Amino acid sequence: MKDFFMLIGFSEILLVLFMQWEVYVTKIVKTFSIGSYIISIFLFYLSFIQHSYLVFILAILTAAIRGFFIPTFILRRLARDPWRERESKPAMGTAFSIIISLVIAIFAYVLYDVTMLNFVGVLSGAIPVVLIFQGAFLIISRKNAFIQLIGYMVMENAAFLFTGYLFPDLPFSVEAGTVLDLIGVVMISGIVMRMRESTSKKSDDFDELRG
User: Fold this and answer.
1) Is the pLDDT of residue 120 over 60?
2) How far, in Å, CA of 189 to CA of 87, rounded?
């Protein structure tokens, strides 16, 4: 179980590093979808090992909402506005972003070792903590609203990976998962509304120039 958990965790870290390197929003969304499916597979496996229906529900939510629904919704929205598929002006260069990501990973591991290791007692628990910090950095380092949303959901996946592995019988994990999914949907709706407003303003400006 421990080896499988570490394999899943390191795979997620590599996927987030790829997101930091990538500038195309569609590829970042697809990468996040793959990562969500990987976590859902782990949670399905964990539910059968521990005979926990709560973890099984969490696995279904992860696959359905984070793996399929939200990425599909974003990709369909991007298909309507092809010019949004690439982030034109990232807040920092990709090479510098990856270096910062590696530094953050080391910092998160040290922080976990100092603060939480004695309480949790599992050294591999540092992996989800690293993922949480990586998701936060993805939000800070990018300007695109959809990429920032992906960073938020990376943090969600890391939290579910942490609670699913270390606290599988915690009912709050499923309730929190449902609430966070709803928050994610609301955030997407807000982003789409903001995009529509900015698009309508631009079209009005063009109409004034024509007149």
Assistant:
1) yes
2) 20
Q: CA of 107: how far to CAs of 29, 40, 92, 132, in Å?
A: 26, 27, 20, 12
Comparing CA positions, the residue from 61, 81, 71, 45 lying closest to residue 149 is 71
Prediction pTM value = 0.76
Residue with tokens 């910090």: 133
Q: Which amino acid, one-letter code, is at 189?
A: S
Residue showing tokens 């939000």: 139
Q: Write out pLDDT tens, residues 65-97.
A: 889 988 898 888 888 776 667 776 666 777 788
Tell me the C-alpha distance between 157 and 35, whole Å.
Answer: 9
Residue whose C-alpha is closest to residue 74's, from 30, 34, 39? 30
